[in-house]
Amino acid sequence: MSSAGSSAIEAAKRKSNEAINAAKEMPNAVKAAAENPQKATTDFLHTPFMRGALPFINGGLAGMTATSVIQPVDMIKVRLQLAGEGVKSGPKPTVTSVTREVIASGRVLDLYTGLTAGLLRQAVYTTARLGFFDTFMKSLAARAEAKGSKVGFAERAGAGLTAGGLAAFVGNPADLALIRMQSDGLKPPEKRANYKSVIDALARISKNEGVGALWSGCYPTVVRAMALNFGQLAFFSEAKNQLKGTSLSSRTQTLTASAVAGFFASFFSLPFDFVKTRLQKQTKAADGSVPYKGMLDCFQKVAKEEGLLRFYRGFGTYYVRIAPHAMVTLIVADYLGFITR
User: Fold this and answer.
1) How many Å apart are CA 55 and CA 17, to the nearest integer?
2) In b/e form, how buried is each residue of 299-312, taking b as 16+ CB within 10 angstroms?
3) What are the domain boundaries of the chain?
4) Burial group, residue 194, by CB count within 10 angstroms (0-12, 13-18, 19+)
5) I need a surface site. Which of 66, 139, 225, 278 has the fewest CB within 10 A?
6) What are φ and ψ of residue 196, in 5° steps?
7) For 49-339, which CATH superfamily applies?
8) pTM metric for this prediction
9) What are the DSSP calls for 204-265, one per residue?
10) pLDDT tens track of the chain, all 341 residues?
């Protein structure tokens, strides 16, 4: 027998013995875990796999918690952005008028339309963006420590932009399903799709318009996410760093930093969020045409037909949606990071 064959057999024997020994130790491991569950949990959380996965898991849980709280505000924001499409003059919808219209129609639960899509989006998008950002920041911090320096704002911004762009591309189908479900109630009853759930929406859009349609509005979605994450994650990280030397408590520092991050996230991302909403809401007419050919075309048409300020319509609502969402997400993520460190 060749030496290579002998080596392979010896390796197989070693693996077999290791497996047998591991099986023998299993009862002891289970018993130890039962006697000291806290230590078993700590040991599990510090395995290499869990250390890499925790930023993503914590980010997803934090985003889903925030979405459950903010969903009605997000619904009103979408309705405001879609109202008066293509019309420059006329009555301007407000938060009060849109809310009153929903309540007057006897469809209060419409405020939670698309919640399943919102949760799926957070499970994908926020899991990815916070996970990537945390991973990037740890890598940057380790590199900076090796050089005897500190992570600067430019590096935080780069990490936020990259994490946001990557996550937005992955989460675009769920985001599109959310917009379709939220805008469905604006159509005449006979033209409504009446999606039963996010899965139903994704399946029907794929079947009727093609799988590629799930990435409609992807470009502005990615740009919007990069702008939002630049404002949210970079400014949150920078604000927390600046507040470290103050007399404020850790909780107050987190609240203050998240409020600052919410404002800048809203300011930088709203125009792109507006265009994203318009592009994802549109469906093909009988002749196959659509109102907007793409992001730039949408920007140009809205600016010409509706005015530049239309891009910032509903800024107050958007901020009320973004700031609390950012605060809840970042606070929950911070807490989860603390208890799982």
Assistant:
1) 35
2) bebbeeebeeebbe
3) 1-41, 49-339
4) exposed
5) 139
6) -80, -30
7) Mitochondrial carrier domain (1.50.40.10)
8) 0.58
9) HHHHHH-GGGGGTTHHHHHHHHHHHHIIIIIHHHHHHHHHTTSSS-HHHHHHHHHHHHHHHH
10) 545 445 445 545 554 455 455 445 445 544 544 445 555 455 666 677 777 778 788 888 888 888 888 888 777 877 777 776 655 665 677 777 877 877 777 667 777 777 777 788 788 888 888 888 888 998 999 999 998 888 888 898 898 889 989 888 988 888 888 888 878 877 888 888 888 888 898 999 999 989 988 988 788 788 888 888 888 888 888 898 889 888 888 888 888 888 888 888 888 888 888 888 888 778 788 888 888 888 889 999 999 998 888 888 888 878 877 777 777 887 787 778 777 77
Identity of residue 294: G
The Cα–Cα gap between 232 and 72 comes to 21
Cβ(122)–Cβ(60) below 8 Å: yes
Q: Give residue 86's identity as a one-letter amino acid code.
A: G
Place of tokens 């849980």: 61
* Placement of tokens 């996970």 in the chain: 131
DSSP assignment of 35-84:
H-HHHHHHHHHTSHHHHHHHHHHHHHHHHHHHHHHHHHHHHHHHHHHHTT
Amino acid sitting at position 293: K
Closest by alpha carbon to 282, among 114, 137, 103, 82?
82
φ/ψ of residue 314, rounded to 5: 75, 25
- Can you read off the two tokens belonging to residue 29? 């491991």
